[in-house]
Amino acid sequence: MQKPSIPKGxxxxxxxxxxxxxxxxxxxxxxxxxYGFQQIETPxxxxxxxxxxxxxxxxxxxxxxxxxxxxxxxGATDAELLDRNSAKLTNKISExxxxxxxxxxxxxxxVQNRDKISFPFKRYQIQPVWRADRPQKGRYREFYQCxxxxxxxxxxxxxxxxxxxxxxVYRRLKINVVVKINNRKxxxxxxxxxxxxxKITDITVAIDxxxxxxxxxxxxxxxxxxxxxxxxxxxxxxxxxxxxxxxKLEQLKTVLAASEVGLKGVSELETIFGLCxxxxxxxxxxLDLTLARGLNYYTGAIFEVKALDVEMGSxxxxxxxxxxxxxxxxxxxxGVGISFGADRIYDVLxxxxxxxxxxxxxxxxxxxxxxxxxxxxxxxxxxxLRANGINTEIYPEPTKMKKQMSYxxxxxxxxxxxxxxxxxxxDMVMLKNMKSGEQKLVTLNELIETIKY
Length: 453
Description:
Layout (H helix, E strand, L loop, with lengths): L14 H20 L3 E2 L5 E3 H4 L4 H6 L3 E2 L11 H6 L2 H8 L2 E3 L4 H10 L8 E10 L11 E10 L5 H17 L3 E7 H10 L6 H8 L2 H15 L4 H11 L5 H11 L4 H19 L5 E4 L13 E7 L8 E6 L13 E7 H11 L12 E3 L4 H16 L4 E3 L6 H10 L4 E4 L2 H6 L2 E5 L5 E4 L1 H9 L1
Parallel strand pairs: 1-5, 7-8, 12-13, 12-14
Antiparallel strand pairs: 2-4, 3-4, 5-6, 6-11, 7-9, 9-10, 10-11, 14-15, 15-16
């Protein structure tokens, strides 16, 4: 018989792992709410017409498509089947796909619900997304995103708040990070200055790989897109800019003097840096011109967050988009958002062993069973403890003490309550601290006090 398995790039999570994941989700949710964001959810599957063409050609290939229900092949002719043209065939046999991110479904949601929501609309969404990518370390085919966006406002205060959210979330999770920031307008200005304005996408997609493949390979990739050697030569000093954020911005003012859009990008970043300084944001913020974030819809500031103490891709990213809802027929809605990569954050916390020792989700006290009378006595205590918000369980059948104790150990239950004739007569229980091994007789109120405090 074949052993059961799960698809590559997906994972099971044990109760302990789920407790750790929920620690991340709850921390992030708490911070989102602090800033006035509200939660929404959208379906796991969307119409392909909603998803296709929104992520560039590479993204379209990475969409998981769902076969039409019933006789899915009936819509395709014999000639089309024999032609084996996947792209054409997909349209005939599949109308739906699993969502690739939360931003495009969010744009669809805003357009569909525009009469029910008030702008600026601040939403957060924590749900899984799917990508038909090649699985590797830190990259999965099914993973959670925690998105926070505000749409319907052009104010750069929103960018400040997102940076503050990043600052607060990682401070609470005790992860040292750096926020890398750039501006799409600066990248457009650079493409304009080097005389390749219409090749902006090719240039940014290549620049975005700088960290992974290095300058030489980036230059090769740009050349392969038909960009002249002269333009590539002009690009070099820009890619090698260094100094503090304000020094880089000053150098850019000179380089981009002839580009109106480029200078606007510089001015936006100056405002954001100024606001962060005024609000005393502690997290290090770096202007990084190689940050391009491949997605085509960013129009302003672009963010990426990297953990400093582990080797890992970015753990948060996002940016400003001016017309995301335009593709659904609702023009001129500007928005800015970021996405926390929960699975990568989970891996970082695992590597650095930063989880709190006791989780709110674990059982706090286990009652052991010796017989029918003891069981009935314990059940009334269980009811009161649970009513007081204490996670309590009872071993369901009388069995050897050793077996019940190792059950408590395996589940990391910190206290065990032992009930025998003596305890019942005194209306008490014997409470054992599993860490110290210490035992003492306690009343119901003392038991509640001990566990709660």
